UniProtKB/TrEMBL annotation:
<keyword id="KW-0004">4Fe-4S</keyword>
<dbReference type="InterPro" id="IPR013785">
    <property type="entry name" value="Aldolase_TIM"/>
</dbReference>
<dbReference type="InterPro" id="IPR034422">
    <property type="entry name" value="HydE/PylB-like"/>
</dbReference>
<dbReference type="InterPro" id="IPR007197">
    <property type="entry name" value="rSAM"/>
</dbReference>
<keyword id="KW-0479">Metal-binding</keyword>
<keyword id="KW-0949">S-adenosyl-L-methionine</keyword>
<dbReference type="InterPro" id="IPR024021">
    <property type="entry name" value="FeFe-hyd_HydE_rSAM"/>
</dbReference>
<keyword id="KW-0411">Iron-sulfur</keyword>
<dbReference type="InterPro" id="IPR010722">
    <property type="entry name" value="BATS_dom"/>
</dbReference>
<feature type="domain" description="Radical SAM core">
    <location>
        <begin position="48"/>
        <end position="270"/>
    </location>
</feature>
<dbReference type="InterPro" id="IPR006638">
    <property type="entry name" value="Elp3/MiaA/NifB-like_rSAM"/>
</dbReference>
<dbReference type="Pfam" id="PF04055">
    <property type="entry name" value="Radical_SAM"/>
</dbReference>
<dbReference type="InterPro" id="IPR058240">
    <property type="entry name" value="rSAM_sf"/>
</dbReference>
<keyword id="KW-0408">Iron</keyword>
<protein>
    <submittedName>
        <fullName>[FeFe] hydrogenase H-cluster radical SAM maturase HydE</fullName>
    </submittedName>
</protein>
Length: 347
């Protein structure tokens, strides 16, 4: 198996059947080898510097009904909230003071904010913080809308493809959503000039090893600047309430493989990873991730942005959360940096 890992390291990809072998037959010893290779590649590009993104979860209203997600519109138990422009700006102000130079505006697909309003929010942040990156995570929109948001000052966009396989996609989403349109959105974003992030959940219901390989190869061919993966975690008020959560080790293996396939990509150790294991984010970094995304949302709304059960960091203030992560990273030899943390193409 180690020769397969060496091949992956050298060629930055593998054949489908080789990836299946890697995912299904990897031993504990091979995992150690894989993680250390992946970490060495991340160290090559980023050293011991970990980029931070301030996550502002500004609305948990959503018009969609994804079967896995706790803020799906059919969940009548969700306690809905929206932050207005002033509240969003005050999160940015607090975040800037704490050293964040990237703000991620994430929300459900909430049409209460008109397109003009979103443009106004983005351009206001752009003018107030010219040295910061603005990342949007607002779901599927038209080419025109993406373009105008980009022109208003947004730099990056996160839109996970969730699963590259259309049949699997249709098992996770109601018929209105399709893998095809999701991918179209991703290509639109890229064409416009955004740094684009995509990714998937590990261990989502009905996922097969073949599906995971399709995800890896889709990502390889799409060449995103950012890759976010985390375990699926069930939410009690969704159709997937009784499905088991995704596994820590498989998630770490996939992070490491993604690092070897996409050496300079920005890969976060996600909150979901920190939720299924108390040291999940540290383990993610040691398997090749190089980004963390502490929460900047007001404490009063955090519990309400509940995509899955038992989410961590819902009681802590932004400063506490950043400090906590700083200490966690320091313990494993890494430091959080005050930096936009843009994607750098390989020269
Ligand atoms: N478990 C883990 N991740 C989830 N997401 C949504 N619901 C869940 C869940 N139950 C992820 C999706 C989405 C991102 C914002 O959060 O991949 O793209
Ligand atoms: Fe939020 Fe530890 S990172 S409390």
């Amino acid at each position: 198996m180690q020769s397969l890992i060496d091949k992956l390291h050298k060629e930055k990809t593998l054949q489908k059947d080789e990836l299946i072998t890697l995912l299904t037959s990897i031993t504990e010893e091979d995992k150690k080898y894989l993680f250390s290779k992946a970490r060495a590649v991340a160290d090559e590009f980023f050293g011991n510097r970990i980029y931070v993104r301030g996550l502002i979860e500004f609305t948990n209203y959503c018009k969609n009904d994804c079967y896995y997600c706790g803020i799906r519109k059919s969940n009548l138990n969700a306690d809905r909230y929206r932050l207005n422009k002033e509240e969003i700006l005050s999160c940015c102000e607090q975040g800037y003071g704490l050293g964040f130079r990237t703000f991620v505006l994430q929300g459900g697909e909430d049409l209460w904010y008109s397109h003009e309003e979103m443009l106004d929010i983005v351009s206001t942040i752009r003018n107030a913080y010219p040295d910061c990156a603005i990342t949007l995570s607002l779901g599927e929109k038209t080419y025109e809308e993406y373009l105008e948001l980009y022109k208003a000052g947004a730099n990056r966009y996160l839109l996970r493809h969730e699963t590259a396989n259309p049949d699997h996609y249709s098992k996770l989403h109601p018929p209105r959503l399709s893998a095809e349109n999701r991918k179209k959105c991703l290509y639109d974003l890229k064409e416009i000039g955004y740094q684009v992030g995509t990714g998937f959940m590990v261990g989502s219901p009905y996922q097969t090893t073949e599906n995971l390989v399709e995800d890896l190869l889709f990502i390889k061919s799409f060449e995103p600047q950012m890759i976010g993966i985390g375990p699926f975690i069930s939410h009690k008020d969704t159709p997937f309430a009784t499905f088991p959560s995704g596994q820590l080790d498989l998630t770490l293996v996939l992070i490491a493989i993604l690092r070897l396939m996409n050496p300079n990509a920005l890969i976060p150790a996600t909150t979901a990873l920190g939720t299924i294991d108390p040291n999940g984010r540290e383990k993610g970094i040691l398997a090749g991730a190089n980004v963390v995304m502490p929460n900047l949302s007001p404490v009063g709304v955090r519990k309400k942005y509940s995509l899955y059960d038992n989410k961590i960091c819902t009681g802590e203030e932004a400063a506490e959360c950043r400090m906590c992560l700083q200490n966690r990273m320091k313990k494993i030899g890494y430091e959080l940096v005050v930096d936009r943390g843009d994607f750098c193409p390989i020269k």
